[in-house]
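Quick start: read one record
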Amino acid sequence: MKILWISNAPWAPSGYGSQTRQVGLRIAAAGHEIEFSANDGSRGDRDWNGLLVRGSGSDRFSRDSVREDLDRSGADWVISLYDAWVYTEQGRDPFAGLPRVTGWVPVDHFPTPLALHGWLEEHGAIAMSEFGHRCLRDTSEGFAKSGRRAFPVSYAPHAVDDVFAPVESRFREQIDVPEDAYLVGIVAANYGTRIYDRKGFADMAHAMALFMETHRDAYLYVHTLQQTFDGIDLPMLFAFKGVDAHRLRWADQYAVKKLTVSDEQMAHIYSSLDVLLATSRGEGFGLPVIEAQACGTPVIASNWTAQAELVGEVWSEGRAGFQRHPSGWLVAVDPDWDPRQGADFAKPLIGSITRALNEAYERRGDVAISEAAIAKAAGYRADAVFDRYWRPILAGMEAELRTPNREDRRAAKRAAAQANRQRRQLRAVG
């Protein structure tokens, strides 16, 4: 079986890049053929570990080139690791009419956004969180009850490689933070946030300003770009919210911009933190939460969508309040309507974030919470995730290849009819 995998390039230091890297190599090792189609601006075709990575198109999400990439690859299946909404904009679904397409998709709203229903009905999905799996399954069952086509849904979570583990780190020294200081970290992408602050930078900045006022030994490290073409001016935001600039540290902007921060370096960063602050307004998974926990660092996250299960339990409607768990805290939220996709994001409550920061501060250096964080992340190790979830998914794809679908049968009938016509014409000439 040959797969065309469409996502960020496997060398991209992003959540999609890391999962492309992990799963792609394991698909190849399992004996399948695989090619990649990059949608992150990577130009030109490249060889990566003996596998072909086709460069991006001119469209921001490569919607103008993936269909041709598929034709050239001769792949049996398309797996798209990306947000499904990008393929619904302006009716530009490049996979329309294709029989073997599935999206490994995030669900970062509640319930499944209305804007995705048509695409899901045609193509089906692999959920990347248990929360997302529940939402997609409910949507598919709802379709069946209303007379629409139920779509196939499976589940495979994101995962982390073994490089994410506690290490002796000198990162504090590198960013001039005292060893006895209390260091809070934020790791989040500052892209696509100009219209909507999905990562919750404003909420986190507000809470950190309040926390730092009462904890003079507290510092904040922010791992993202300070400014991007479609993101927030974060230095201006943090100054406006009152975060003490003398205790605020930023990632090396050149390294982040050039995408040169390795997983090994990230493990050193996570290991140097006392707590990771990750109270976004909605996550399809939230990879930094698991990466930090794998390094023994507790996490403060929003009690919403996929984040809840990464710290506590699978989120369900009615469970949005403050919670303590062995490996961290979930903060209370209020639903926040997203008119673009037709479902709710969530607004983390500033007081709840501050409460979690204060409780985390009281447990600084607690070995039990660090051990609990490592144990929580253990279920998301890449080899185990591939064996448990991806092997059955791939086996199901192979089985479907051996069972022609309606489109295949129609195409075969058309080909047979054409061949019969040609034979009759030849006999008539003869």
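The chain has 15 helices and 17 strands.
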